[in-house]
Amino acid sequence: MERQWKKRMPILTLFAFLLGIIFLPGQGKTSYAAGTDAGGTREEAMGIEVNKTYSEVLSSAEDVDYFKFATTAHGYFRVQLAHNKANSSEEGGWRVSILDEKGEVLTTAGGITKTWTSIVLPYAEPGRVFYVQVEEYYNSAINTVYDLSVTQTAAADWESEPNETVAAATPIEVNKTYHGITINSEDTDFYQFKTTVHGYFRVQLAHNETNSSEEGGWRVKVLDEKGEVLTAAGGITKTWTSIVLPYAEAGKVFYIQVEEYYSSAVHSTYDLAVTQTASSDWESEPNETRALANDIKVNQTYHGITISDEDTDFFRFQTGVQGYFQVQLAHNEANTSDQGGWYLNVMDETGKTLTSESGIGKNWTSVILPYAKPGRVFYIQVGKYYSSAVHSVYDLKITQKAAENWESEPNGTVKEATPIKAGKTYHGVTGIRGDEDFYKLNVPASGKMSVKLSSSDTNQGGNVGSGWSVVVYDRKSNVVAGLDQIATENTFSLDVKKGTYYVKVKGVYESSAVTCQYELLANYAKAPAKPKISSIKAKKRAAVVKWKKVPGANGYYVYRSTAKKAGYKKVKTLKGASAVSYTNKKLITGRKYYYRIAAYKKVKGMTVTSPYSAVKSVRVK
């Protein structure tokens, strides 16, 4: 037996040697020679190349294999662990972790059996070092051979980790699609882009079609160059597009932040695109103060959007002609619904509010704002009033019309009074509570002045409340005439002398006639020339008075008194231009009577009287 055993020894030795070649680590895909085992620590990690397959085995529950590789191109990589086909069974059960150069775990998976491929890991810079750690998860993994490979794909349209801060943001271009992935619940991805034209942009996040399901659930924030959030949305699943973000200046920097919102977003790939459109008719943020107001032109339509509760938009324009303007705010047809709800203030160059409106929904047009001087600066402020206005687009337009027959604000004092001409109708509006409109009329000579105020046809019935009051002042600010509570139409007149007169129009009460239009007509007629008594003769219980004809007169008034300087009463009205004499009968014999004559004419509904003639007297026979 001993001899037979010795004879068989060379054969068994050869057989054992052959088994060693086949099964010991290090030789071939399924053979391992001593000294080639993957290291048990990161420092001892075995270097591998991307896009090649390596085979290894865990010899015990405590055995850990480390592999080290370097990225070769700008793009992304995946790690694949597969059950080696040389194994007699498909049992296994490994845990694989992928670590960065600092040893921090990027992603991990446990319970791997047949084949596993990691998620995309977008580390774009070539030459970066990463580690793969393989360890036993089920005891079936002991002495079971696995195949390991790292595949890398060159790609310029993927995020580039690390990009978890604004400072480390991945640069992207507008109007191109990029891809990213939230590899764990703490992963957040930042992107940086620059606007390229004067216009607006949108941000779109979509579920990448390579995902096995349409699960997702991201939160996206759009930030300005200071890192302040402009808009945000959470719970994004399939496809989401941000609101329009109107930042018109080319070359401005913005950031996009993407992070997991639902757990379903972990390991899910998304597509990100920033689309920018050239546009000169959109607001340009930032414009939240008068100093930052967007310059706009009259008679053109512009677009804006209130992107948050705090967002307020300012616009600035100049009047181009003498006349008036109106402000129109409309709900933009691009909105999916007719929701809205803005407030709007119209301000002058000092920031004083001229008129305002709140709760604006579909369409609104301001009152007429009569600021006649061309070249004046005004501001429009638009902000959210109802929550429905957040993320809603509006259209803004300033319409201006040339008009010489309108009041010209500011005209709230005698010094600022709007000049008017007699016989011409002017239009005005009491735009806000307490608004007072002054007008100035120059009277060239003594005569008559009438003032007519009427509510404009554009006012709906009942709008004017108690109406307006009208007061006339002389050049010394003395009240010389007036009328109160004119709700529809009324006229009054007064005698005037050569000089300047002022007409003030105001709502009777603070709430009366606010934003209501009125029409003002001031007429003036010059008085006829002073008559001259040509003769006065006494008759029996009568007196005959004659005077010279006054050009343009429609008739004459005869006044009589028994005293030279007082007590005159009108005793006769003579109609007709040819009536130039009057016989006063039934007088008292022997009494002395004094006479004076005044001519009159009727002009524009007014009866205008001349100055009195010189007094003449006669003693009756």
How is this structure best described in words?
With 621 residues, the chain is mainly beta. 4% of the residues lie in helices and 48% in strands. It contains one helix and 44 strands. The strands form ten sheets. Strands 1-3-8-5-6 form a five-stranded mixed β-sheet, with no helix packed on it. It is rod-shaped and about 160 Å long. The N terminus is likely disordered.
The total strand number stands at: 44
Mean pLDDT over the residues? 88
**Rg over C-alpha atoms, rounded to the nearest angstrom:** 49 Å
Helix content percent band: under 10%
Number of helices: 1
Q: For the record, give the distance between the C-alpha atoms at the N and C termini, rounded to a whole number.
A: 196 Å
- Overall, the morphology is rod-shaped
SSE layout:
Blueprint: H1 2-23, E1 46-47, E2 53-57, E3 64-70, E4 75-83, E5 94-99, E6 105-112, E7 115-117, E8 129-136, E9 145-154, E10 170-171, E11 177-182, E12 188-194, E13 199-207, E14 218-223, E15 229-236, E16 239-241, E17 253-260, E18 268-278, E19 294-295, E20 301-306, E21 312-318, E22 323-331, E23 342-347, E24 353-360, E25 363-365, E26 377-384, E27 392-402, E28 418-419, E29 425-430, E30 436-443, E31 447-455, E32 468-473, E33 479-486, E34 489-496, E35 499-507, E36 516-526, E37 533-539, E38 542-547, E39 555-561, E40 569-575, E41 581-584, E42 592-603, E43 606-609, E44 616-619
